[in-house]
Design brief:
2 helices; five-stranded antiparallel sheet
Length: 171
Amino acid sequence: MKRIWKLGMATIAVGGGIWIGSVMNISADGASVTSQPGTADDPVVTKSYVDQAIKNAVQGGGGNTKPTEPAEPSTPESSAGDELKIVVVKPGQRLIAGAGTEFIVRSGKAVIYSEDANGVADLTEGADLGNGKSITNNHLLSFPREGRGIEVQEGNKYNLTVMVRGTYKIQ
């Protein structure tokens, strides 16, 4: 008898839960309707629009005036160091980097050249490479100071192909 009573109570509880859930769902349907972003009800605005609207409000022109079109985004003066260049280094030559320059050796056998004990940061490997250390191709090298660079490994007769971002000179 106990088993039938438990089964009946479980059926009533499940049925009641389903009925209450369906009633609650009907009353919540109106609350769940939201407009899509980008429509007239919920517009998407750009940062430049908001900045212009704030500027107009601060200057006292806080009416419903439409801000002017934003100007082209300002970029710092581009220097020759911002673009990526392909440089070929022949055996016997050195590619000397300026401060903050980055190299990626694409082909050839290269070694680090440094006049002092400090080296060059291999950002790909997370290591400091000292003078004379070989460079793994396709690793990003960062030169923190002038006077350091790379050269063709001694005994190698093939050119280096290097991608350079920043200032450099060939010696």
